[in-house]
Amino acid sequence: MERIFKRYKSDNGKKIYRISFCAYFDILGFAEKVKNENIDFFNHYLKVLEGELNYLNTEHDFENKEGRKRFELKIFTDNFVIRYPWNHEDGEIELGDLFDVLSRIQLTFAQKGIFIKGAISYSNLYMDENIVIGPALIESYKLEESHAIYPRIILSENAKEVVNQHINFYAKDFPIPQKSTYLIDKDGYYFLNYLYFLIENFEVDYPNYTYVSKEMILHKNAIEEELTSNNINERVFEKFIWCAEYHNFFCDNFLHPEFYKHSELKIKNELFERKMNIIE
Questions:
Q1: What's the CA gap between 28 and 34, in Å, rounded?
Q2: Start-end ranges of CATH 3.30.70.1230 in the chain?
Q3: Which of 153, 119, 154 has the alpha carbon at shortest distance from 138?
Q4: Model-level pTM greater than 0.90?
Q5: For 138, which DSSP code?
Q6: Which end of the chain is more exposed for a tag (fewer CB within 10 A), N or C?
């Protein structure tokens, strides 16, 4: 069956750039774990990664056995690159698929204590079995390196423009999916609202509130553990402050208190709020 790589070649086999969405992300604190030769973490990471690859294969035909594969993922150490060529008129299907893939990975990793940060760009790209090259990769890498900062996946300016175009397709009184799948951070960057993956496909008549609550508690526990263990490392601690604020923001804005116990799901402020104190 035809591999996705052929989409970056013309009919006569010539290598060509294709307009593509490109997501680049890596794992927070991975270099430090390499330095410390943290074997337990590496074994844990590989086990979680294997589970995610199995999920991608089942849900997205990652091995292309059924000819349904629409994107490609490359992994080297803790670096992940996803390429999704633009094939439809407006790119909404591609971004929707990319949201599902990235959100699932980010959520599952976070629940297992593996936090990622990255960026999504939208530009020219070439890719085959051995080569990945183009402005899309360079931009997503630079954004991740310099601007993602926290465990979030941000959008480049042109990817943001595509999302805004999709939003404008809908009538103002219509539920607009992009207004839930992305959020605007304090610094103005659009970022992936990956927790929305839990409720994105709720059956209206049979919403599974218990399942969502259990998943949110796993997410909460992982963040609380990082806040506790990194309390004296200010540089790392502030990254998990962001995680706690995002977690609580999601509870407040997407989980109605009529159906969810916020007192159980939210992270207590005293775990991450910094306060002035008197010397005792």
A1: 12
A2: 14-200
A3: 119
A4: yes
A5: H
A6: C
